[in-house]
User: Fold Tyrosine-type recombinase/integrase from Jiella avicenniae.
Amino acid sequence: MGELVPVQLSMLPSVVSAAGERASIRFLEFFTAQIRNPNTRRAYGRAIGEFLAWCEAHGVASIVAVQPLHVAAYIEELTGERSAPTAKQRLAAIRMLFDWLVVGQVVSINPAASVRGPSHSVRRGKTPVLDPDEARQLLDAIDVSTSVGLRDRALIGLMVYSFARVGAALGMKVEDVYVQNRRLWVRLNEKGGKRHEMPCHHNLEAYLHAYLEGCGIAEDRKGPLFRTIGRGTRELTTTPLPQANAYAMIQRRAVAAGIGTKIGNHTFRATGITAYLKNGGTLERAAAMANHASTRTTQLYDRRSDEVTLDEVERVQI
Assistant:
């Protein structure tokens, strides 16, 4: 259970433990029974932990004593210090926790239900996007004479050509790359337990074949697809590549390729979607390929308007 919850029963915030054992157990169950995604669990654990620390610092004796005024004051203070999306995410976490406590009859009302978060509307995502030539420059700059080079090119190529989230890519097993109708396909387990399957672009197909055969892992069907490199050996291990390592790798590759844009793991998803739409793809198809529930989410990755904006800026000829 220690891996599932952000704190142990003996390490609970004092405002929770002050409410008694029943409240404490219900609090822990929120992070185990209610939240299954580990990334969401970490984010909500951090958000709720900070709120409860604020409550303790402001004299709130117990979690059952939290009132709408406390939540409103916290969100107001947070909005002044952090971004609007952060404040809204923290408020969502607090609401969800108290909904759970209401259902468990620990508290009678949800003190966050009536609190409004800051106004925030997003029409364009903030994820840095590479120009197609930059993406090609990055891929071509990777030395594929080594196992690590073959791995890195395959991982970046997978995120570009299949619009895969880095978490889904790193969670793949070798068996998730398979042949169907004489074409290579990939199977991705996306957020919310959604399984998503896509045929490979011919470049991605070449990258994956070179990686699997060149590193000798094609027959290890149950093993992780993307793996760490052993110290001193420079060969693949059987340990899955952590997300932080993938981010560090991308930073190194970008610097080596002379890419000036500050990129991250999500950059390649946005880059692939934008390139697809630029070449006549439809928003509806892009949403299906990215496994988005709504085209509104896909639109956040559509950065075609950036070129229009740059062209218009250059009209200011002074």
